[in-house]
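Async update (no meeting this week)

Hi team, since we skipped the sync, here's where things stand on the single-chain job. The sequence we agreed to prioritize is pasted below, unchanged from the tracker. I ran it this morning and attached the output directly underneath so nobody has to dig for it. Comments welcome in thread, and please keep replies under the output.
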Amino acid sequence: MIGNKNQNILQALSLDGRISNTELAAKVGLSPSACLRRTQELERSGVISHYRAVLNPIAMDIGFTAYLAVGLSDHTKASQEAFEAAITRSPEVREYHNVTGSFEYMLRVETKDLLSYKVFHTDVLGVLPQVRSITTFVVMGSPKDDRA
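Output:
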């Protein structure tokens, strides 16, 4: 189990992965050396797997985000692997998950605009023989988004 101090460290780092150790220590109420030891142990143990930059979609010319529910026509391992290989190569697909329910995959897709999404929908997903159905949920806004 992760203690309160470690939880506080993780919360602070999830908001700002570039915070200095001195600032982090002050924020969580530890000495800098104790804070550094705890942070390094969280990294060593795999609780913190890596750090990444949060990209600004507007600066990246991304104006359209959608979640797609994708159903496959064939439920074999080979079909899933072929589908995953194809969408992994697509830069528009920012994340995807194999899920349970009435469809097999949930994708988060980001493109410049609706027209660019239509091209992705038609020319990337639309030509994959594994795809049986695509349901698109257009993101209208994201009041809370904690992904880093």
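Quick observations from my side:
The domain at 4-44 is CATH 1.10.10.10 (Arc Repressor Mutant, subunit A).
The CA atoms of residues 9 and 28 lie 6 Å apart.
Reply here if anything looks off.
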